[in-house]
Amino acid sequence: MPPTICMRCSTNRAVVKRPKNHHKLCRECFLAVFEDEVHHTITSSKLFVPGERVAIGASGGKDSTVLASVLKTLNERHGYGLDLVLLSVDEGIKGYRDDSLETVKRNAVQYDMPLKIVGYDELYGWTMDQVVETIGKKGNCTYCGVFRRQALDRGAKILDIRHVVTGHNADDVAETVLMNLLRGDLPRLARSTSIVTGDSMSAVKRSKPLKYAYEKEIVLYAHHKKLDYFSTECIYSPEAFRGTARSLIKNLEKVRPSAILDIVRSGEDMARLTPDKGQAACACDEGEGMGGCGSADGRTSGSEMAQMEAKLKAQAGAESLETEITSSGTPSTEKTVSLPIRGRRTKEAAPVPLQKLGSCIKCGYMSSQAMCQACTLLETLNKNRAEADIAI
Ligand SMILES: [Zn+2]
Ligand SMILES: [Zn+2]
């Protein structure tokens, strides 16, 4: 069989079959098309203003590493005029975050960007290892997600930066759309589809430039661009519900590659039909809905991505005429679907247009409740710690 020729340049040999639309492209064309699509997302949604200082939420994982690399490339190519900074959160997870932070430190040198690291221990007095020691592994993702969101905001404030970009990809967004659909939480669904989150009350704007990029294409981009990233998954167990939604999406993608973008678009359409869209947007919302276990790196049924990465590495050396990107292996199926009990959600699910943003009485962080989510969680943790001390 003769080698397949790239359908874009009609010159080079195709080495990539795009997971998104099965187009067969050469390395250069794939990288160019991927970058052009992110550029289109950025310009069509007017994401940046010239001269803006932007913090990239960097975990060392593939999503945020690709985001940093692509933003650097596009910033130089198209003259965005952005001042890019890497912002990392140290959750305090030994054997996971300490290693991935080493990757971020190398990225800072490779991309010539300043790096700021903020730690859970200095911000909250707790590392995730200590949280898990206290509450166990179940539900720890909720704590981590809430803490991470605030940590990024606080890090941005320390740097006097008002815009944080995160590596959330199309799979992450589709996953959140499905989760909120299954929970019947339309207001949250509406908020999660927006490329920019946060509102006029929030000092820090959040956005997702990779919102339309497939996770598999991010892996391919990182591979073909030879980016230095950390691919180990978080050692703590993820939320069972999120894992189930993720498996569902991966299965849908197998029979219909466009399913991921279709779900994202459907979510956007539903958002337009939601009356209180944006009204109740509060800083805590996304922490739980989107950020669970790094989302960018903590893969739940991650075996598929790990297999894909291993396959890419193996293929890199092999002289195969054509690289077929097929999804191998069956996705891990969740055995239990335990829905965490969260009283607030039921309340939030109902359209309550009068939800107002104020500040947390404890830490001053913006919150729709008297006390922000992080402080509420901290109160439980500190109570547990005090009780443990008494017991001794
Ligand atoms: Zn080409
Ligand atoms: Zn607070």
UniProtKB/TrEMBL annotation:
Sequence positions that bind ATP: 57-59, 63, 89, 167, 172
Enzyme class: transferase
Record's function text: Plays a central role in 2-thiolation of mcm(5)S(2)U at tRNA wobble positions of tRNA(Lys), tRNA(Glu) and tRNA(Gln). Directly binds tRNAs and probably acts by catalyzing adenylation of tRNAs, an intermediate required for 2-thiolation. It is unclear whether it acts as a sulfurtransferase that transfers sulfur from thiocarboxylated URM1 onto the uridine of tRNAs at wobble position. Prior mcm(5) tRNA modification by the elongator complex is required for 2-thiolation. May also be involved in protein urmylation.
tRNA processing among keywords: yes
Biased composition (Polar residues): 323-336
Classification via Pfam families: ATP_bind_3, zn-ribbon_14
A GO cellular component annotation in the UniProt record: cytosolic tRNA wobble base thiouridylase complex
ATP-binding as UniProt keyword: yes
Protein name: Cytoplasmic tRNA 2-thiolation protein 1
Organism of provenance: Stachybotrys elegans
UniProt-annotated location(s): Cytoplasm
Family (UniProt): Belongs to the TtcA family. CTU1/NCS6/ATPBD3 subfamily.
